[in-house]
Amino acid sequence: MVGGNGLFYPIVGFISCVAFIYLSFGDLWINNYGDTKLSFVERNGTQFIVDGKPFYFNGWNSYWMMEHAADESRKHRIKTVLQASAKMGLTVCRTWAFNDGDYNALQISPGQFDERVFRALDHVIAESRQYGIRLILCLVNNLQAYGGKTQYVKWAWEEGVGLSSSNDSFFYDPSIRHYFKNYVKTVLTRKNTLTGVEYRDDPTIFAWELINEPRCITDKSGDTLQDWIEEMSNFVKSIDRKHLLTVGLEGFYGPKSPKRLTLNPEFWASDVGTDFIRNSKISTVDFASVHIYPDHWTHNPDFEYKLKFVHKWMLSHIEDGDKELNKPIMFTEFGLSTENKDFDPLKRERFYKVILDVIYKSATLNKSGAGSLVWQFLVEGMEEFNDDFGIVPWERQSTYQLFTEQSCKLAKIQGALPSQMTYLRKLCT
Length: 429
Fold this sequence. Notes:
With about 425 residues, the chain is an alpha/beta fold. The strands form three sheets. An eight-stranded parallel beta sheet has the order 10-9-8-5-4-13-12-11. The protein has a three-stranded antiparallel beta sheet with strand order 1-2-3, with no helix packed on it. The protein has a two-stranded antiparallel ribbon with strand order 6-7. Helix content is about 40%, strand content about 15%. The longest helix has 24 residues, at about 1-25. The protein is built from 13 helices and 13 strands. It has helices spanning about 1-25, 65-70, 75-85, 115-130, 150-160, 175-190, 225-240, 275-280, 295, 305-325, 345-365, 395-415, 420-429; strands at about 40-45, 45-50, 55, 55-60, 90-95, 105-110, 110-115, 135-140, 205-210, 245, 290, 330-335, 370-375. Helix 6 runs parallel beside helix 7, helix 10 packs parallel to helix 11 (about 345-365) and helix 11 (about 345-365) runs parallel beside helix 12.
């Protein structure tokens, strides 16, 4: 036993070094992907299901892929990030399927689309399939970046049909609801020019996300946002019954939830017009999303406090998935800011490990915590697109090792891997 334990860590270190080298020279290993076959992700109670087996995953965010694919000088970054992430055993990526009225806009004005940018999204989906990566595609932003609900309100105001100049009118203005429904229908029924498959029929797409981080602060009761989610989720399902759907919530408990007092990061979180339980219970919402940003959500600068908050925050939502919702819980964004005065890459890795460990334990116990998506992966030369959370994970071996080990630990739980998970099979066997 003692001899075995003594050998374990050197072996793990050796394997990590080999994998790190493989990341740089992987094309010598696999250079012919063929037509990767993927099945639709389904849901059975609190678990995601692929080919009849529970699906727990390790993933990431790269919101910028469509915009970069629209620019020939930056298009190569799509392959770079997909290939590198696949070699780390990651199988799910969340990205934007919107850019409203901004540079390289997909939707130039209500109902008017740039075919060049749509072809860029076609490329992102087709390229992801080649690497066995499933995509979560978000349909609009609550924030102003890439247009978001602000742009929709501006369009309605400029056309003289807007009810209010408030950004929150996005959720209740009939004209804006019509704009958004038209956008959703156009995206879901888009036929990919590279694969010939309509988006709604493509299993490369894991799920649709209605909106990134919705908040409606003008109605703290949450009724306005609840009504919008019900209407839009039903609309999506009327067009596409094959894909799963989530809202895009941050996970805050609402004003009527008893958990608001003990689990929310601070008192303000129950007053932003959302309610994790209520919003996620809607029958047309297939799984719940949660974000993790303790350094942006709380004024407490203590790092150990943040780690304890993260652990409690995750366990609470997994408990909700198991006992209240009977749905999977996906932690769709998490990050630690480099702008913290005491920032240290080692602290960030400790932060990551807390999250990855909770997901692994959830998987071992067949609980609802189904996977996590780190925010965010970049590639070399993308400094101008970095916020205070972005990483190039293969630049730091210890960070890289964290994610590859998580991929293999989750893969081991799931047993024999499908043949289409080429990189994961090679990495872990």
